[in-house]
Design goal:
The protein is of the alpha/beta class. It is elongated and about 80 Å long. It has three domains: 1-51, lambda repressor-like DNA-binding domains (434 Repressor (Amino-terminal Domain)); 53-160 and 297-322, Response regulator (Rossmann fold), CATH 3.40.50.2300; 162-292, Response regulator (Rossmann fold, 3-Layer(aba) Sandwich). Helix 8 links the parallel strand 6 and strand 7 (216-218). The longest helix has 17 residues, at 294-310. The relative contact order is 0.12. Mean pLDDT is 89; it is low at 337-342. The chain has eleven helices and twelve strands. It has a six-stranded parallel β-sheet, sandwiched between helices. Strands 7-6-8-9-10-12 form a six-stranded mixed β-sheet, with helices on both faces. Helix 1 packs across helix 2 (19-26) and helix 7 packs parallel to helix 8 (191-206).
Length: 342
C-alpha cells in the first residue's frame, strides 16, 4: 500500500483509535499502552505513512514560513503578540501564518497539517499549557513558547515575570495605605494567573498582612467575570478598599459593578488592572495598570525562533519581558481608614 497522501486520520481509522492517539505514538508520548502503540505502528508501516514531517521539510529545504498558534485570534493580547511576531518575521524575509486552536484536538490536527503538508520552518505557541496541546508538538521541531516557561529544556520561551508584576501591583496599593485588597484572578489553570497570585501573596506577606481567602475571586479574563466578582463580594458584605484585577477587562467590569453600587473610584475603592490595553487611559477614571508590551513579546518570539531555525546548533536563550507600573487616576490614598459601608 504505497500512497504518499495518507493522513493521520487514515492511520487512526484503520488502527481503530483517535487521531490524537496516533499523534501521541508519533511524538513518543508515554500516555499510550504498549498494545495500542504496537497496533498504530503496524498500520503506519503497512501504509508506508511518513510521520516524520521534520525530515520531509528539511529534505525539501526551508520555506521561510512560520506559524503562530493561539487559543483564539480575537483576544487583544493574543492578536497584539501575533502582530508583533508578524512584523519581525516580515523584516527578515519570513512569512507568518496564524491560526486559532480552541482545544488540543484542533491543535494536533493543525500542527500535523502545518508541519507535514505546509512545511513551515517553525512554530510559535501562545499559552502552550492551557491544556495538553504541548504534547502534540513534534520532537526537535523549531518551536518557541509564549506566555509560559517551557517544561522542556529544548524549547525556548518568552514570558513576563508575572509574579513580579503581581507583586508590583499589590505593593502599589499597599503603599497607598490599603490592607484589604480584593484580587480577581484570571483563569485559574493559566500559569500567569498562578504567578500573579503568588506575587499578590508575596507583597501582602512582606508587609505582614495576613492574606484572606475570602478576598480571592476566580475570574476568566472577561469583563463580565470582573463585574460578577465585585457583585458577589458586595452581596457577601466583604470589606475591601482596593481591587487588583489580573487584566484590564476584568478591571473595567469591576469598576462598572462598583459604580452601579454607588461606590466611588478611587475615593472609596482603588482599582488596578494589568495589560495597559489602548483604552485603559480612557476609562472613567483612567485605569492604573501594569503595562506589558505585547508587540515586543511577539517580536522577541519571532526573532528567537528565526535564530533557532538559522542556527540549529546553538542553544537559544529564553527571555523575560519587563513590565511597568502605569499610575493613573483609579488608585489613590486610602481615605481615613474607612471600609466600604453598604
Amino acid at each position: 500500500m504505497k500512497n504518499t497522501h495518507y493522513t493521520i486520520r487514515d492511520v487512526a481509522r484503520l488502527a481503530g483509535v483517535s487521531h490524537q492517539t496516533v499523534s501521541r505514538v508519533i511524538n513518543k508520548v508515554e500516555k499510550v499502552s504498549p498494545g495500542t502503540r504496537e497496533k498504530v505502528e503496524r498500520v503506519i508501516e503497512e501504509l508506508n505513512y511518513q510521520p516524520n514531517a521534520i525530515a520531509r521539510s528539511m529534505a525539501r529545504g526551508k520555506t521561510r514560513t512560520l506559524a503562530c498558534l493561539s487559543p483564539n485570534l480575537t483576544d487583544f493580547t493574543f492578536a497584539s503578540i501575533i502582530e508583533g511576531a508578524e512584523q519581525k518575521a516580515r523584516e527578515v524575509g519570513y512569512y507568518l501564518l496564524s491560526s486559532s486552536c480552541s482545544d488540543e484536538d484542533t491543535f494536533a490536527e493543525i500542527v500535523h497539517e502545518l508541519v507535514g503538508r505546509r512545511r513551515i520552518d517553525g512554530l510559535i505557541i501562545i499559552n502552550p499549557y492551557i491544556d495538553y496541546r504541548y504534547e502534540f508538538i513534534p520532537a526537535h521541531f523549531p518551536t518557541i513558547f509564549v506566555g509560559d516557561e517551557s517544561k522542556d529544556d529544548e524549547i525556548a520561551w518568552v514570558a513576563l515575570d508575572d509574579e513580579l508584576a503581581g507583586y508590583m501591583a499589590v505593593k502599589h496599593l499597599i503603599g497607598l495605605g490599603h490592607r484589604e485588597i480584593l484580587c480577581i484572578q484570571g483563569t485559574i489553570s493559566d500559569a500567569c494567573t498562578q504567578n500573579r497570585t503568588l506575587g499578590y501573596f508575596r507583597a501582602l506577606q512582606e508587609e505582614q498582612i495576613s492574606p484572606k481567602e475570602t478576598l480571592l475571586f476566580c475570574g476568566d479574563w472577561t469583563a463580565t467575570s470582573g463585574y460578577k466578582s465585585i457583585e458577589t463580594a458586595l452581596e457577601k458584605d466583604q470589606k475591601f478598599s482596593a481591587v487588583f484585577a489580573q487584566n484590564d477587562r476584568m478591571a473595567i467590569g469591576a469598576m462598572h459593578a462598583l459604580r452601579n453600587a454607588n461606590i466611588q473610584i478611587p475615593q472609596q475603592v482603588s482599582v488596578i488592572g494589568f495589560d495597559d490595553m489602548p483604552l485603559a487611559s480612557y476609562f472613567d477614571p483612567p485605569l492604573t495598570t501594569i503595562r506589558q508590551d505585547f508587540n515586543q513579546i511577539g517580536q522577541e518570539a519571532a526573532r528567537t525562533l528565526i535564530h533557532k531555525i538559522e542556527h540549529p546548533d546553538e542553544n537559544e536563550t529564553s527571555h523575560r519581558i519587563a513590565v511597568e507600573l502605569v499610575e493613573r487616576q483609579s488608585t489613590a490614598l486610602k481615605s481615613g481608614g474607612e471600609h466600604i459601608e453598604r
